[in-house]
Write a structure and sequence with these properties.
The complex is a heterodimer of chains A (about 120) and B (about 110). Chain A is mainly β and about 120 residues long. Chain A contains no helices and eleven strands. Chain A has strands at about 5, 10-15, 20-25, 35-40, 45-50, 55-60, 65-70, 75-80, 85-95, 100-105, 110-115. In chain B, the strands form two sheets. In chain B, strands 2, 4, 5, 6, 9, 10 and 11 form a seven-stranded mixed β-sheet that branches. The chains are: A mainly beta (about 120), B mainly beta (about 110). Chains A and B meet through strand 5 and strand 10 of A and strand 5, strand 9 and strand 10 of B.
Chain lengths: ~120, ~110
């Protein structure tokens, strides 16, 4: 079965600094990977997805993620953090074991942005 | 531009009471899902419906039942609520069962069981 691991339950950065949120996956088949963002008291919104078309995936709000098969990673980055980026971020992998798409989520990383 | 709508947004129940959480989507999606979110555990799948008329258990189905009423609506029922079911519940939908399909989420129902 597929799974993802997010390193660090909390990440703190200063406004303008690089954002790096880590995600490693475990999959016996080429994975489909997703990053979602959750703002307070809201549902999850799709940031970006990897479906094997390109290893560097660009998403909304200036975020991007790079798929590295050799490292089984799909880390999320943004060159310059903004206060509005403060939220919780979830990495997810599509579990294809049942023949039907089910998303398996990581435990989340809360991004804190200080002025 | 409603997307996925969940009702109610908040609810407090006493142990043993029953309740149905409602979910409706207006995107003509075939597949729908119910998750629960607990601190430090991410989202865990309770039940899903690949298409109208079908439902299947997810990772944590015990204590819950679901009904896919029609293509738009997918409800989650707690027959006898327990404090362990205190959580935030999210409904989601996707266009079809494809593995690369993103899921679209509602804003959640915050449920407390006393």
């Amino acid at each position: 079965a597929q799974s993802v691991t997010q390193l660090g339950s909390h990440v703190s950065v200063s406004e303008g600094a690089l954002v790096l949120l880590r995600c490693n996956y475990s999959s016996s088949v080429p994975p489909y990977l997703f990053w979602y963002v959750q703002y307070p008291n809201q549902g999850l919104q799709l940031l970006l997805k990897y479906t094997s078309a390109a290893t560097l995936v660009k998403g909304i709000n200036g975020f991007e993620a790079e798929f590295k098969k050799s490292e089984t990673s799909f880390h999320l980055t943004k060159p310059s953090a903004h206060m509005s980026d403060a939220a919780e971020y979830f990495c997810a992998v599509s579990d294809r074991g049942t023949g039907f798409q089910k998303l398996v989520f990581g435990t989340g990383t809360r991004l804190l942005v200080s002025p | 531009n409603a997307g996925v709508t969940q009702t109610p947004k908040f609810q407090v129940l006493k142990t043993g009471q029953s309740m149905t959480l409602q979910c409706a989507q207006d995107m003509n999606h075939n597949s729908m899902y119910w998750y629960r979110q607990d601190p430090g555990m991410g989202l865990r799948l309770i039940y899903y419906s690949a298409s109208e008329g079908t439902t299947d258990k997810g990772e944590v189905p015990n204590g819950y039942n679901v009904s896919r009423l029609n293509k738009r609506e997918f409800s989650l029922r707690l027959e006898s609520a327990a404090p362990s079911q205190t959580s935030v519940y999210f409904c989601a939908s996707s266009e079809d069962r494809g593995f690369n399909q993103p899921q679209h989420f509602g804003d959640g129902t915050r449920l407390s069981i006393l």
